[in-house]
UniProtKB/TrEMBL annotation:
It comes from the Bacteria. It comes from Streptomyces litchfieldiae. Belongs to the BCKDHA family. Its EC number is 1.2.4.4. This is 2-oxoisovalerate dehydrogenase subunit alpha.
């Protein structure tokens, strides 16, 4: 097949919307989904605060907070079906927890535990990935394999705006489009790749426009609007499962905290910018709509906070205890069948592999 023989389905609109997709304030609230999104946002906000505190106490090596962009995380976790897979980046602990991962297990990588802290196959959550965008080709590979086997599986790969400047991002989208892999890419555009603003990363009108060059639809959504993000992702994942190929979704959001606890965000962004985004806090926006619709009472809000406190207490208890270290774990899960060299190293160390 030559390039001239390739064609794009004219029924598929590739151009993203001129304005981010929004639902808050424009449609009646879903009486089941929206309150659940709210509860998870409350829990996520508390989770971020507790994990940050644990980092200051030396219980975590580092923590990249997602405060301010929890709507993207929560919507991603809830949009997935039971058989779908999540491929998160290092900032996507909330998405993994909403997906069903135990709250403490999601912090295994950031604590330095072996084997990333959980079994990816049991939860259908790939290991949280620290190198930028390297999880995306893996997401495409799993999605392509599922398609070849006829499995009803869709894959959601999460990445930040900084990751879109990596070669892995290009390779993943290119392969996904050519293979029509059932995968959705969610770019959480929080404005900065650590300290580098988006304007210094790309000249594209939006990151969603990058989809056009790969031959897949691009969607633009307000990342502070949890129901809107859920709506866009749910539709994109359904499209993927139906064999219609991949979608690139850009959620315009903002991280209110620094990049990590090791970052001084005041060196590259002004406080008035942060204040402007704080006024569009995703938790406040959703809570306001729910109260206006009579779907959230003071008692309901208190219940959500109590549930969040239980999660925080669980984190404190789990990470406050020193881990039980086994030297033999150095030789476990390196190979399915230990090599002679590994067996010899284990014997020298005094441990049988």
């Amino acid at each position: 097949m030559t390039v001239s023989q390739l064609s794009v389905d004219p029924a598929v609109a590739l151009l993203p919307e001129p304005e981010p997709h929004r639902l808050l304030g424009s449609v009646p609230p879903d009486p089941v989904l929206w309150p659940r999104l709210h509860r998870e946002l409350v829990r996520g906000r508390r989770y971020n605060a507790q994990a940050t505190a644990l980092t200051r106490q030396g219980r975590l090596a580092v923590y990249p907070s997602s405060t301010g962009q929890e709507a993207c995380q929560v919507a991603a976790g809830l949009a997935l079906g039971p058989r779908d897979w999540l491929f998160p980046s290092y900032r996507d602990t909330l998405a993994a927890v909403v997906r069903g991962l135990p709250p403490a297990a999601a912090l295994g990588l950031l604590r330095g535990d072996w084997h990333t802290g959980y079994d990816p196959r049991a939860h259908r959550v790939a290991p949280l990935c620290t190198p930028l965008a390297t999880q995306l080709p893996h997401a495409v590979g799993l999605a392509h394999a599922a398609r070849l086997r006829g499995d009803d599986v869709a894959v959601l790969g999460l990445v930040g705006d900084g990751g879109t400047s990596e070669g892995d991002f290009h390779e993943a989208l290119n392969f996904a489009a050519v293979w029509r892999a059932p995968v959705v890419f969610l770019v959480q555009n929080n404005g900065y790749a650590i300290s580098v603003p988006l304007a210094k990363q790309t000249a594209a009108p939006t990151l969603a426009h990058k989809a056009i060059g790969y031959g897949m639809p691009g969607r633009l959504v307000d990342g502070q609007d949890a129901p809107a993000v859920h709506d866009v992702l749910t539709r994109a994942l359904a499209r993927a499962r139906a064999g219609e190929g991949p979608t690139l979704v850009e959620a315009v959001t903002y991280r209110l905290d620094a990049h990590t606890n090791a970052d001084d965000a005041t060196r590259y962004r002004a406080e008035d910018e942060v204040a402007a985004w704080r006024a569009r806090d995703p938790l406040d926006l959703l809570e306001r709509e729910l109260r206006r619709a009579g779907l959230l009472t003071d008692e309901g809000a208190a219940d959500a906070r109590a549930e969040a406190e239980r999660t925080a207490a669980e984190l404190r208890e789990a990470l406050g205890a020193d881990p039980a270290l086994r030297p033999a774990d150095l030789f476990a899960h390196v190979y399915a069948t230990p090599t002679p060299q590994l067996a010899e190293q284990a014997r020298q160390f005094g441990e049988a592999p």
